[in-house]
Structure formats: structure tokens, C-alpha cells
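Morning run. Coffee first, then this:
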Amino acid sequence: MNWLDIFYAFLSLLGGIGVFLYGMKLMGDSLEMVAGNEIKRMFAKISNKKFIGVGIGTVTTAVVQSSAAVTVMAIGFVNSGLMTLTQAASIVFGANIGTTSTALIVALGAGGFANVNLTVIFAALAGVGALMIMLTKKDKVKKIGGIITGLGMIFVGLSVMTNSMDIFSKSDKISAFLAKISNPALLLLFGILFTALIQSSSAVSGIVVTMSVAGLLSFDQGLYIILGSSIGTCITSLIASVGTSTNARRTAVIHLMFNVIGVTIFGLVSISGVFTKMFMPIKSPAMRIALLHTFFNVPTTIVLLPFMNLLVKFVSKIVPERKTDDKNDEPHLYFLEER
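And here it is:
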């Protein structure tokens, strides 16, 4: 294999990531347009019951396909005074469960079923959805077509990424180089930075899945990158909280704290090798990574849920009220500066 083959494989990987990311965005945006009003009604009806908030956060994230986007929504609701900090915290907890749906869908397609290549079948949906968009004048049908097209594009991108990973796996130098990267802290940092760059933990999960299928990443390497991606995805909500109210900024910090605590606990337990023993019997490398992603988020939510109020109090202390914050009971100008 010469350098030109590797260069072409890199370009294919870049193209695959682009199609994958755009497919996720198109599907999420289309789903949001179809179910947007229902999502707003659900958010508006959130009570102080934790489980209701977690359930709504889970369902909404599964629809929008982005925990960061749902957290940003929650920040917006808190900033406008329509949601309390505790209610937003329950949404954030649920969002971390809902985000696992993407990895499971990708793993199902990448792994296939028996002799059926699900990636090709799902990829064909891109054409079906595109025809729906082009051949109809009904707005709702176009939106449904957008959902189907987005889903298909996710698998088109996945297929392109898988093919490029296969080329990389044939290079002894690349395989040897990746095999040497075994330091958990380094892999964790890579997961954080890469996810912060592309602002999608689901996309990182998809890339880890394709690399695992090609044999470029071991299970342990994928484990720490996935853990890092859980922290890296918080960058979107932290950016969105800049310039907002105190409670809105606290919501973003709760999102960060949830993932940092979860990663710390999960990372310390993983040193014993218990997760390797637990997941290695699963034959499909893709499903191993997807179930790992799920196993991290669901138990973390279950463990931290009883301590949610304590977490809210802790974040309220480390993110204090600012003197410049407007008081809700005082009349003030919203769209003009004080000057």
C-alpha cells in the first residue's frame, strides 16, 4: 500500500464523516419539525417529579438525536424562566440515556443480521426519502422524507467510513501505530478534544464503531474514547450558556458535572478489567461499543438520580449569583443595554 492509497482513504473517511454528520443533522432537524410542538408541550408540562423529567429528556433526545441540543433547549427554557434548575437537571439526566439510541442504530447497521447487509438496505432510504421530498408538494410528507433521507445518509456515511477504515487496516504501519496508543488518559483526552471539535458524541461513537469493526481499535481503546466523548459533548451546552442567566449557566455545569462524575466512576472501575470481561463475549465489535455506550449512560443516571438535588445545590454554590444578574421581580429592559 502506497501513500496515495492512504491519502485517498483519508479523503473518503473525511467525506464519510461529513455525510454521517449531515445525515444526523437532517434527521434530527426534520424530526424536530414534525414533533417540535409536542416537544415544546412536553417541556412546558414538566413537574418537579424527577422520573417525568428523565423520561421526557430521554424521549426528546432519541427524537432530536443530540443530547447537547436537548441540553441547549433546557438552558433556553431556564434562561426564559419557564423551567426551574431542578427540572432542567432531570432533562439533562434523561438526555444522557436518549443519546445512546444513535450508537445502537449504527451498531445494528454495521453489524448486520445473519447474511443480511443492513447498512446497504438502510443507505437506500436516502434515495427513498429524496424522492419523497422531490415528488410531493405536501409539507408534512417532505418533512417525513427528510427524516428518511437523514437516516439513509447516516448509513451512507457509515458505509464510506467502513470502507476507508478497511484500507487503513491493511497498512501495518497504521495498525502498529494505533496499537501503541494504550494510555487511558491519552485516549480519554483524545475523546474529549475530538468530540469538542465536531460537537457530537454520537458521531464519535459511529467512528469508534467503524474503527472497531475494521480491527483498528481494541475494545479497551474504544472504551476510553467513548468515555472522553461524554465529557467533550458538554462543550456545546457550555458555549450556549455564555451570557445567559445564572440558572442557565448552572444547567450547563450540571451537564458537565454529571458526565465528569460518571466518567470518573466508570473509569476507575474499568481499571479492574471487569468491562472487558463483560462485553468481550459479544461477537459483534460494533454492538460491543454500542452496548458499552448504553451501559455507561443508563447506570450512571440510575446511580446519580437520587443525588440530583444534592448536585443542584453543589452547582448552585460553585456558580453563585452575579451582582449584575437581573432580578425577576424588578421591571427591566430586555432588548436594550442599561446605558
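The chain has 17 helices and no strands. Good start to the day.
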